[in-house]
Amino acid sequence: MLGLIVTIIIVGLIAGLLARLIVPGKQDLSLPMTIVIGIVGSFVGGFLGYLLFHKDADDGFLQPAGIIGSLIGAIIVLLIWIRVGGRRSITH
């Protein structure tokens, strides 16, 4: 169980960092938030993989993806995060 948690965190970190490198612009995200974006991206990638290829049907549609699916999902999640975060008004 501990190995699974460590693996999820490492894949989340890699996917989150790669997504931040690929997506242009400045992202004001901490390292833990980068990991969260990568982990959520992994599940988004797994969901999209299920929708497109109907894999993992026996285990349900919410599956963690491999590193490629995680990266694609993390990019999607990061773009949504930037878009939603850009709507906030900043007052001084």
From TrEMBL:
Keywords: Cell membrane, Membrane, Transmembrane, Transmembrane helix
GO cellular component: plasma membrane
Membrane topology recorded in Swiss-Prot or TrEMBL: Multi-pass membrane protein
Main localization (coarse): membrane
InterPro entries associated with the record: Transgly_assoc
Keyword Cytoplasm among UniProt keywords: no
Entry superkingdom: Bacteria
One Pfam family cited in the UniProt record for this chain: Transgly_assoc
Segments passing through the bilayer: 6-23, 35-53, 65-84
UniProt keyword Magnesium, yes or no: no
Places the protein is found: Cell membrane
Family of the protein in this entry: Belongs to the UPF0410 family.
Protein name: GlsB/YeaQ/YmgE family stress response membrane protein
